[in-house]
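SUBJECT: A protein chain and its fold
Encoding: whole-number codes for local backbone shapes
RECORD BEGINS BELOW THIS LINE
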Amino acid sequence: MRYIRVVSVGLADVLLRHARNPSVAQHAPADLERRLRELLDAGRAAWPGLDVPAEQFVRHLAEHLPEQGDLDSCLARMSCSDLYLACGCVASTPAALAAFDTSVLGQTVPVLHRMGLSASQVDEVVQVVRAKLLVAEEPGQKPLLASYAGRGALVGWVRTTARRTALSLRRNKDEQIGGGEQEGREVEQIPLPPDAELDFIKNRYQAAFKQAVEDAIGTLDAEQLSVLRLHYTDGLSIDRIAAILSVHRATAARRIRAAADAVRAETRRLLHARLGISGGELDSLAGLVQSQLHLSLSRLLKLS
């Protein structure tokens, strides 16, 4: 008697229902099922003791799958095992949260120490980052970690968040203290170290990104261009800019930040309008704008 192996297509159905990439439908359901089972097994192997429900993981994967490109290529570029962990964390699975704290969030501590933070400051940043990533701002919303799209290692994504959080907390405390005795209180003048996910996004959209930033700068008025040129191109401190403008240093800082925020917002809008990218990729591009903006401004303002 000849036996025929029957392959369930339950997970393939989930992917087909929720993925927005048209190439998914070009694959046979049985082949999709086998591929998804392999990804599921890889996630469980990478995070022993964490058992995320299969359909839940596949739906999470489908929501972050790029909307364009061949399915195999898209999956090859995604860190699906890390996406598996993130899926468990978003669902508040205790084993996932424990693994996140130990194997991911804990990796930010050496980075923060290298930034010159004290032990108490490191603890504060870690707690803020944990709450920011794992706790939803409003009931019914998903936590920020749900926006992680698997473009690069999760630990790199979280390290970048920790760096930005540390810089933001430092800046906020400087503003609360006030005064002008410290020259190093410039707004967002510290280049962030490279991040795998942002590098991938930057390489993919490099030309569009540069054009969007240039077009966004072109929408600024004369006053906004002036404060950005003084800060990013001339490299003047906030106190020096405040003296030139005859305003308080806090006012100067607000003007610089408002002008930079305007460029970021317009860049984000242009990228969304021109590329039609998914929400997850747009969030990653927003991070790229923040981490690389001063470099683009410095170059483009010299030409304007």
In short: The CA atoms of residues 13 and 29 lie 7 Å apart. Residues 1-9, 179-197 have pLDDT under 50 and may be disordered. The first helix runs from residue 10 to 18.
